[in-house]
Amino acid sequence: MTTLSLERQIAEALLSIGAVSLRPEQPFTWTSGIKSPIYCDNRLTMSHPQVRDAIAEGFASLIREHYPQAEVVAGTATAGIPHAAWVAQKLSLPMIYVRDKAKGHGKQNLIEGEVPAGKKVVVIEDLISTGGSSLKAAQAVNEAGGQALAVLAIFSYQFEKAEEAFRSAGVPLRTLSNYTALIDAALSTNRIREQDVAALSAWRLQPETYYA
Question: Which of 56, 49, 116 is nearest to 80 (CA)?
């Protein structure tokens, strides 16, 4: 019996709970205005204990293998926060979260929790599209005196724009699953047809213009 890769396992889990939907013939419209054959709402994983635990264990395994020197787990607000908490619990590490902007009152915190000055930090995100918000969180950690070792995410659309942004910033990116694994999983479970694969693959290369 063949053991599925982690990428494939997570992709099938996301599909099974409806966290990811594929509609190549009737694309969704994102907030940015981009028309997309895929819609991802990883917040749904919070409501499914087995799936969220598989995600947390996947993150914990990546950290143990690649970043054993990590001293703090940071979540991105808001979707990365619960996953960071579950991972920090598994690894018995401190947890913080990074706001998208500083609070407008009180101490005007950008980072909630103990500021990680001098600490090595992994940043947990739920979804990578362009990568901008994740890199902003990593930068906030560095500016607070910490050292952002990497960004870890549940899923990535694998846009070249995002991959280039992480390369340019010098921040490693690792994901539990990705768009390629998702298409394979969707095809093997009859959620899409063989003739949909070419269109889905082409969209990833030209997301802003494919449906224009």
Answer: 56
Q: What pLDDT, on the 0 to 100 scale, is given for residue 4?
A: 78
Q: Which of 161, 170, 157 is nearest to 204 (CA)?
A: 157
Angle between helices 179-188 and 197-205 (to 10 degrees): 170
Rounded to a whole number of angstroms, the CA Rg of the chain reads 17
Q: Are 87 and 59 in contact (CB under 8 A)?
A: yes
pLDDT of residue 101: 80
Q: What is the pTM of this model?
A: 0.94
Q: Specify the DSSP class assigned to residue 197.
A: H
Are 138 and 124 contacting, i.e. CB atoms less than 8 angstroms apart?
no
pLDDT cut 70: percent of the chain above it? 96
User: Which of 105 and 14 is assigned the larger pLDDT?
Assistant: 14
DSSP 125: E
Q: If you write DSSP's letter for every residue of 50-117 in order, what string do you get?
A: HHHHHHHHHHHHHHHHH-TT--EEEEETTTTHHHHHHHHHHHT--EEEE-SS--SSTT--SEESS--T
Q: What confidence score (pLDDT) does residue 1 get? A: 38
Question: Which pLDDT value is given to residue 208?
Answer: 92
Quick one: which of 130, 205, 120 has its CA closest to 163?
A: 130
- Cβ atoms within 10 Å, residue 89: 13
Give the up-direction half-sphere exposure of residue 207: CA atoms within 13 A in the CB hemisphere.
20
User: Length of the chain, please?
Assistant: 212
**pLDDT of 71 higher than 60:** yes
